[in-house]
Amino acid sequence: GWDGGTLGGAKKKPNKPKVAKPPPPTKKQKAAAVATEEQARAAAAEWRAATKQKQTQEQAAAGGGEETPERQAARAYRTGVLMRCPNVSPADDILLSGLKRASRVTATAGLKDPVLKERNKSAKQLDALTTNLCKPLGEYVKGFPRIERLHPFERALLELTLREGRYETTLYQVDTVRKGMLNIGKGLTARAAKAKGPKEAVNIREEGFVEMEKYFNKGKASIDELKEIAKTLRRLPVAELQTPTVAMVGAPNVGKSSLVRVLSSGTPEVCNYPFTTRGVKMGHFFIQEKRHVVTDTPGLLWRPDENRNKIEKLAIATLEHLPTCIVFVTDLSGLCGTSVADQMAIRDDLFTRFAHRRPWLDVMSKSKLVPALGGDLCPDLVGSWSDGDEAEAVATAEKLLGEGALAVSAEEEINVDSLRAHVTTTLIKHRATLVDTDAYGAFDPGAVGSVTPGAERAGGQWRTPTPMAPIKRVSRTD
Known about the structure:
Elements: H1 27-61, H2 69-75, H3 91-103, H4 114-143, H5 152-161, H6 166-193, H7 198-218, H8 220-234, E1 245-249, H9 256-263, E2 269-271, E3 280-287, E4 290-296, H10 310-321, E5 324-331, H11 340-354, E6 360-365, H12 387-402, E7 406-407, H13 416-435, E8 456-458, E9 461-464, E10 473-476
Parallel strand pairs: 1-4, 1-5, 5-6, 6-7
Antiparallel strand pairs: 2-3, 3-4, 8-9, 9-10
C-alpha cells in the first residue's frame, strides 16, 4: 500500500504554516525602547554609586577615615606574592623530558610518499622539542613577580635576601635561553619541512636535536639558579598588613625579646630569614577579639644606613613599610654593650624619621638594675661604673621620663601591666590608621580616632594624657 510518500519513495515534506511578519516598529516605539534602555543604565549606575557610598560609610564607621588616593594605592599592593613563585624543575629534567616527548612524535597519518612522510616527522619532532623546552621556561619567567609590583616590604626583603641584581639578571638569562631556543627551533623546523629527500630530513632532525641540546646546556646554570631563587623566596615570612604590629626597637641586648615574651599571650614564634642565622621572635595577643602581633626587631647600632648590615636593614624596613606601633627600648643599666649616648642617638634618629608616621612609645628596660630609676647597680659593673656613666644615665632617665617614658623590668615584672595597658590603649586608638599604613600611608596625629578628646598640643608635639600609667605617647608632627 501507498504510505503517502511520493512515487520515488521519499516522503513529501509538509507545508510550513505561513507566519505573518510583524510590522516594523514605529518611531514612538523606537523612542520608548531607547528610553527604557537609558533608564536601565541609569538605574545600574545609581546602584553602583549607592554601593560604593555604603562601603565608604562602613569604612568611616569602623574608624578608617576618608578614602584617599594614597590608601587606594597602598591597597594595590598585597604581600605573600613571593610565596607563589613557581616551582622550577631542574634543567636536566626539562631537557630529558623534552627529548623523550619529541622522539615519540610520529608523522601525520595518511602520508604515503616517503619524502613527505619523513619531512613531516622531522619537522613535527623538531617543533615538539622546541615547544617542550621553551614553554616551561616561558611559564617560569612569567610566574615570577616584577619587582615594581611587589609590596615595598617584600621588595626590601628580596633585596636583602639576594645579592644586588641577581633576581633580574637570572630571569633575563633564562628568558634569553628561551628566545634563543625558539629561534633555533623555528629555523630547524622550516629546514626539515623543505628537505629534498628522506635522508636529508633525518640528518636535519638529528643535527637539530644535538644543536638544541648543546644550546640548552649552555643556559642550564641560569635555570638551576632560578630554581634556587624560587626555593629561597618561597621560604620568606609573609608580612601581615591587616594585623597591627607592636615593634620592639632598640640596640642589641636591651631586653626587646623579654618584652615580646611578657606581652605575648603564648610562646613567641621564631621567623627565620635566609640572610641571617638569627631568628626574629614574633608573638601575638588579642584586643577586643582582634589579633595583634608583637615582634622583636633586630638590634640597631649607631651608624649611617648605608653602613648597616642586612639584619639591621630588615629592622628599618619593618618600621618603614609595615603597620607598626614603635616601642623604643632603652637600657640604662650598662649591660647591653651599647653606650647610653649611642642608644639615644639611635632613638633620636628614628624618632625624627618615624614618630610623625607611627605611634611611638618610650620604654626603659631592666629598671631593677638602674640606680637612676631606683634600682641597684649590677654587681658585675661595680668598679667599672664611673661617675660620668651615672650622670649620663640620670640625665637620660630624666629626659625620657619627662617625655612620658615608662620604666619596666621584664624579669621582675615591674610596670609590665602598665606597659600592656598602654599598648592596648594605643592600638585600639590607632588600629584603623595602622591597618591602612604602609609605604604610601602615614600615621596622622590629626586623623579620625588618632587623638583622644583632651589631647594637648604643646611645642609642636601631641601629648595624650592617660590615667592608667605615667607614660604619654609623644610623636612629632611636621
